[in-house]
Amino acid sequence: MIEFFDKIGLPKFKRLTILFCLAGDWIISAYVIMGLIRGREVIRQLFETAIQQQGLPPEEIDLNIIDHYYQLGVKVGCTMIAVVLLFHILCYWLFYIGKGFGRGYVKTLGWMGAIGYLLFSLTSFQSPIFATVLFIQFLFYVFVILGFRNINMKE
């Protein structure tokens, strides 16, 4: 294993690590955004249930407010994803230029990503294609973990 990573070298390992981590970021971001977009009917049902449980007559509630809350939720969710992606890009840059914080963050991200994507792929029964994509991303994170264990980061 050490010979494999010695052949790759530190600069190429850093670029591949950043590419693989960005792929993981993209996959999870797309999944969350698709969930937000598809969640309109779920939000409507939750509001209607809450209105009924409060004993309020549904006719007195403006149902357009549900759409406003939904749109607010989508905007907040997308903003949070954008902030996390910007933070990750900053950490990837710090890793690339050799800063300790970036290295530690990417190393931790590799472990958390591997565990998360493995569990997520094993529980994604609804779509075998999506589960396969998640498992491939898990393998990318395993590459990152093995690289940190086997490559000399001082080059």
Shape by Cα distribution: elongated
Q: How many helical elements?
A: 6
Q: What is the number of domains?
A: 1
Radius of gyration: 21 Å
Distance between the termini: 18 Å
The amount of beta strand, in percent, is under 5%
Helix content: over 70%
| Series of secondary-structure elements, N-terminal to C-terminal | HHHHHH
**Major β-sheet annotation:** none
| Total DSSP E strands | 0
Low-confidence stretches: none
Mean pLDDT score: 89
Structural class: mainly alpha
Quick rundown:
This protein has helices at residues 2-8, 10-38, 40-53, 64-96, 100-122, 128-150. The protein has 155 residues and is mainly alpha-helical.
Walk me through this protein's architecture:
With 155 residues, the chain is mostly helical. It has one domain. Helices cover 83% and strands 0% of the residues. It has 6 helices and no strands. The protein has helices at 2-8, 10-38, 40-53, 64-96, 100-122, 128-150. The longest helix is centred in the middle third of the chain and has 33 residues, at 64-96. It starts with a helix and ends in a 5-residue tail after the last helix.
